[in-house]
Amino acid sequence: MPHRYRRLRRTAAIRGLVRETQLTPQDLLQPFFVVDGKNKKETIDSMPGIGRYSIDLLLKEVEAYVRLGGKGGIFFGVSSQKDNTGKYAYAAGSPVVAAIKAVKRHFPDFCVVTDVCLCAYMTHGHCGIVQNQQIDNDKTLPVLAKMALSHAQAGADIVAPSDMMDFRVAAIRQALNKENFQDVGLLSYAVKYASAYYGPFREAAHSAPGFGDRKTYQMDPANSREALKEALQDLDEGADMVMVKPALVYLDIVNLLRRKLHMPIVAYNVSGEYSMVKAASRQGWIDERTLVLETLTSMKRAGADIIISYHAKDALKWIE
Ligand code: PBG
Ligand code: ZN
């Protein structure tokens, strides 16, 4: 007999009982941008509600987030010092190193994840060492390892390489283990596509490539087979979790990895996805709250265990 589906949709209580996917505060990581200096809060035009903070004001932001039930964040350094070696990425005085120490001192239970990549520290804005206009994979590996190590030494719980050089997971894992940081976690941006959805982030992090694009290291949006292979290889090299990025137009990939891998999967709801929602919301064209919860829930339904989102703080207020 054909079923009368509307019976289980009749009241909010019944709908709640049969709901399959529940978004919770534990699933979310909020990105934070950190700059040098004091008393700084710089707004980012393309990302309303997101700022770049100096450590003192960053702590206030993290505190507000923790008060709402937030459990962790991913931290990005925005560097005024840039060169062609990437040495500011692992400098003792880097804003992100200071941020890790300060956040861990004030909020020891807060999960501190750090982005590991060179683009914000390079004059040319690429994610690796550049020689003759080429991004040199193997020369980049030791620099990334030093950067990850500097974050571990500062107290990071998890380091998250986003550069897309091959073999960087192994290089970082080895460097961490050698210095007795075998308990520091490694979240690999394993499946990171060369995406136009990163546009607003590059304004936020001052990390746009000065020449060319990132297509020789980030993945082709048309491909899914290599997504699985990249993820498997990174797990083999020592990653604890793998990420798919961006999230929304790649939920097929999130689901593919969910079905094939027995490891936590992370979806990154990136800057362009956030900015589009904000823009439409400001026009009054969509209901932001409902749309954000629907969007984040779709990522969980697709199979993400963890969602990195600029909406995380708002979502904490809105989750029922
Ligand atoms: C740096 C990095 C990027 C993002 C995270 N880490 C940008 C890029 O690869 O150009 C994108 C995040 C976002 O768009 O929110 N490698
Ligand atoms: Zn980068």
Shape: globular
Number of H- or I-type helical stretches: 11
Question: Care to count the β-strands?
Answer: 12
CATH-assigned fold name? TIM Barrel
Broad structural category: alpha/beta
The proportion of strand residues reads 15-25%
> How far apart, in Å, are the first and last alpha carbons?
35 Å
Name given to the CATH architecture: Alpha-Beta Barrel
Widest sheet: strand ordering: 1-4-5-8-9-10-11-12
Number of domains: 1
Bound molecules: ligand PBG, zinc ion
What letter string, H or E per element, gives the SSE order?
HEEEHEHEEEHEHEHHEHEHHEH
Give a quick account of the main beta sheet: strands, pairing sense, barrel closure: 8 strands, parallel, barrel
Q: Can you tell me the CATH class?
A: Alpha Beta
Identify the CATH homologous superfamily.
Aldolase class I
Helix amount: 25-40%
**Alpha-carbon Rg, integer:** 20 Å
Give structural notes.
It is a single chain. It contains 11 helices and 12 strands. Strand 6 (129-131) and strand 7 form a beta hairpin. It is of the alpha/beta class. It is globular and about 70 Å long. The protein has a single domain, classed as TIM Barrel (Alpha-Beta Barrel). Helix 2 (55-67) crosses helix 3. Bound molecules: ligand PBG and zinc ion (ZN). Ligand PBG binds at residues 115, 117, 119, 127, 162-163, 198, 201-202, 207, 214, 270-271.
How would you concisely characterize the structure shown here?
The protein has 320 residues and is of the alpha/beta class.
